[in-house]
Amino acid sequence: MPTLPIKWKSAKNKMRLNTLTSFCGFVLLIAALYCPLLRPFHIFNMDAFGANKPYAMVLLLVGVVGILGTVFNQIKLTRFVAWFSLALVVLFYIGAFLKVHTSFSFIPFRSIDAFLTRQIKFKWGWYLIFAGPLLAVAGVLFEKKRNFIPPSPQNEQTKV
Fold first, then answer.
1. Computed from CA positions of residues 87, 91, 96, 98, in that sequence, does the dihedral angle turn out positive or negative?
2. Coil, helix or strand for 122?
3. If we measure between CA atoms, which residue out of 59, 33, 64, 60 comes closest to residue 47?
4. 10 belongs to a structural domain
5. What is the domain count for the chain?
6. What is the domain range of residue 139?
7. Does residue 80 carry a pLDDT above 80?
8. Looking at residues 102-131, what average pLDDT do you find?
């Protein structure tokens, strides 16, 4: 049975370290959405989908678009999605922080409000959810610029 010759070392199949870093960042972003982010009242863990489902779906979509951009070697798309995912994660953290610290503000007693706010803990998933976009941004930040090579003057003279 004949086998197809695959050139693993060819220039087409070469994935640069920066592209691989961005790819790992987007995969880490998607995986971090399912990690525990909040633990209210020490009863259960809440992931991104439990905290804010529509926003988590947007982050999931951004991660998938980032993976597709790296796989198809779309540098501008990957760069935009990496920065956009970092901005969305920062916005998600600010929203979660404000939600935790203002959830019990309707209670007129500040001591009870502070006690209940202390019962909602941030978990280790936030480290992963920030590490993903930071890896993706690091991958596109150190991307090599393609140098423009002007056409040689000999080719222009031969065409005349």
1. positive
2. strand
3. 33
4. no
5. 1
6. 17-37+44-92+123-143
7. yes
8. 89
146: left (phi over 0), alpha (psi -120 to 50) or beta: beta
Cβ atoms of 82 and 136 within 8 Å: the answer is yes
Q: Is the pLDDT of residue 10 over 60?
A: no
Strand, coil or helix: 44: coil
Residue 144 has pLDDT above 80, yes or no: no
Residue 98 lies in a domain: no
The answer to whether residue 111 is domain-embedded is no
- Which pLDDT tens digit goes with each residue over 24-35? 999 999 999 999
Measured distance CA(121)–CA(14) in Å, rounded = 44
Percent pLDDT > 90 in the chain is 54
Compute the distance between CA of residue 47 and CA of residue 36 in angstroms, rounded to an integer.
Answer: 5
Query: Could you tell me the pTM of the whole model?
Result: 0.78
pLDDT at 96: 92
The answer to whether position 82 is within a domain reads yes
CA–CA distances in Å: residue 14 to residues 3, 73, 76, 142: 22, 11, 19, 17
Could you tell me where the DSSP H helices lie in the chain?
A: 17-32, 48-51, 53-71, 75-102, 110-118, 125-141, 153-159
